[in-house]
Structure formats: C-alpha cells, structure tokens
Amino acid sequence: MTRMSEGLSGGPADLADVPPETRSSTGPLHASVNDPALTSMTLLNEIAGRFPDAVSFAAGRPYEGFYDVADLGRYMSAFENHLTDELGLSPEATRRTFFQYGRTKGFIHHLIARHLRNDEGLDVEPESVVVTTGVQEATVLVLRALRTDTRDVVFAAYPSYVGFLGATRLVDMPVRAVREGPDGIDVADLEEKIRRARAEGLRPRAVYVVPDFANPSGASMPLADRRALLDLAAREDVLLLEDNPYSMFHSGGERLPTLKSLDAERRVVYFGSFAKTAFAGARVGYVVADQSVVGGSLFADELAKLKSMLTLNTSTVAQAVIGGYLLENGCSVERASAREAEVYRGNLRAVLTGLEEWFGAGGPMSGAGVSWNAPKGGMFAVVTLPFRADDAMLEYSASHFGVLWTPLHHFYAGNGGFRQIRLSYSVLTHRQIALGIERLAALIADRT
C-alpha cells in the first residue's frame, strides 16, 4: 500500500531530501492559485486594510449612503405578498420557498424578465434566465460550458475586468487580448485576432465585452460599433458575452441599447447583476442564455446542470430580498437606482474637475506629464502617470501620502498598463475626492 508521503511527494527518498519547513501535505496545486489575476484583489484589500485612514480610490464598491437595514424586511414582505397574492402559493409553499433549497435556475427569473422588458426593451423568456450567486458564478458557468478542449479560446478587450480574467484561469480557457480605444473594443482588431487564431488551429468561442462604462477604462461603445460587433459575431460564428453592471449610471441622457436588445440572431449571452444597483451583499446576479445547443436544448438549462454541481442554488433569502426590491420599484432597476446614479454623476464631475485644476492648463502641475480620460458615466476613470505605477508604488503612495488607487496592470494580466491607474469614485464624498487628488498630486510631485 502506497504511503501518503509517497503519493504526494514522489517517494520517501524525495521527501527525505526536502527541508521540513518546505514540505507540502497537499502536493502541487492548480496554476490559477498563484495567477496574478486571482491574487490581485486579495493584495489590494490587504494594502487597504493596513492603511484605513488613506483616501481610497481603489474600491469598486457601490455607494452605501442610502442603505437601511429596515429595507431588507420590507423587501422580503413585498416578495412574500407577491408569492401569495400574485402567484397564489399556499402558506406552506411560501414558507418552503424562503427556507428550503430552491430551484437551481432561481425563482425570481420572471421578475428579472420584467425588469429587462421595462429597462432594456428586451423580451426574454423567463426560462432562459439562470439566477446566479453574483455574475462571477455566471461567468464561470458559461466559460466552463464553452471550454471543450485546448483549441477553445475567448477574446476580451484589454484592459479587462480582473474577475473575468480570473474566471478564465479557473477553467483553463486561454484569453486573446484585443485592443481597446476610447470607444471600447476595437472591432477591426477583434476580427483580425479571430482570424489569426483560426489560422493557428484554434477555435474562437466567445468575446467578452462591457459596452457601457467598462471596468476599468470607463469606455463606452457607440451604436454603430455595437451593430458592427454583432455583424462580426454572426460572420465569425462566435458568441458575445455582454456584461452590463454600469449602464444605469449614465450622464443623464438617453441610454444606448444593449447588445442583447439589438441581437436578432441570439449571438449574445447577457450577464446582469444587482451588486452595483441594489446592493453587493445579496450576491445575486443572472445570465440570459436563450441560445439552442446541440440536441435542441436551451443553453440556460445546460448551465443549470453545471450550477447544480457548483452552488446547488442561489440563496433563496437573497433572491427574496432582490425580488422585493424589484417589485417595490415596478421592476425598473433604473428607477430604483436613480439616487445612486446622481451620486456617481456628481462624483465623476468632482474627479474630472480636480484633475483639471491640478494637472490641466494653468494648474500647478500642468507640466507633470499626467493625462486622463473623461468617461460619460460609470464608476471609474483612468489616469496616466509619468512613472511606473505598480504594486510597490501603490504601497509607497498609501504609506507616504495616504491615497490608494488601483494599478492598471492588474487588468492586463500583468502584461501592460504599468503607467496607468484606475480611480474609483463611487463611495467617496466630494471633499474626500478633492483631498485624494491633492494627495495624488503630492505623490506625483515627489516622483517627478
């Protein structure tokens, strides 16, 4: 019988040669454990925890000034009334809905379908909706389903949301980087990258895209580019994975249509979330997967099979709270999050004004070589610095100047963006924003 040490370490002779302090009782782990995409959030949280008095432009959390614990009970009561009065459930069935294991695909799918119709002009069958434990689970499920062998690849504009990059690592799905410009993903570059991948014997499966106020860049796609992207997806026979957490936080004008609402050929798998609009603690997201798969089944049903082995079901209590939140607001997330959207608009103006006052023409540091973009909504802006802005510089910034930000190289999987930083302004007051930019200016003066 093989001893444990032999099975894990290659045999007693090998183990004897290894110093006790470096021996492992687990053996090697999956490469994703040490991948920069998976360790970046932990690193940033650790630095923030050590400098609690620093002004933090690092956290991508939603604004919390309107939260009230009393709302949770009211939302749950609204959903309970919905179950009994509108759906006709008995008291026993209602109680079971709250307390027992729930349906794998979720039980607020019909309310999400109402929200999509009200806010996006999008008609989806409720059965094409899978309610997930945040969008992160939805991303893993979709990538897991699409990744069949080593030929499969997915594409994403760089810089790209680090959560998506981490999900690709978990399922061993290679990512091909696509250029991103001021108007979002470069459709011409994407077409070239897809054809190049096919020439290498690879199988392009999908393109991850955030058309509205992308994280981290804040870029948004014009309508013409959205249509061109859909045309390209049809020509090249790939799916578009549309992630839409920020479109409600626009400048106040008319919102552009989502890719999904323009999708006539069911090329778009749509990710939605209540983390930024309702509240992150619920951990409720969803995926609309209305495509047919080989054999004629619904893609949503195939994803539900995977979910049943991952989380069984999304928290029934959390779903009830989000269900009540939707019901109380007429299943309009735009209406429900109007106050938060106004806060973000004001904070974005404060950030852009502060950068212009310090680094713009006539400002005290106008010649420092600092530039920035001007998003039209969302929660993030990007600043380009005249020096390397890596994790070591973030530590220096926090310890010496009391200001935190996010190095953009985390959104390039460590392969770019070393002179850029992301400023998140969602949870700050105007006074904190002004102080934080002043401290950032002091850091830049120190380095230049």
TrEMBL record:
It comes from Streptomyces hazeniae. Pfam families: Aminotran_1_2 (PF00155). Its cofactor is pyridoxal 5'-phosphate. This is PLP-dependent aminotransferase family protein. Residues 1-33 are annotated as: Disordered. It comes from the Bacteria. GO terms for molecular function: transaminase activity. Keywords: Aminotransferase, Pyridoxal phosphate, Transferase. Residues 93-440 form the Aminotransferase class I/classII large domain. CDD domains: AAT_like. SUPFAM superfamilies: PLP-dependent transferases.
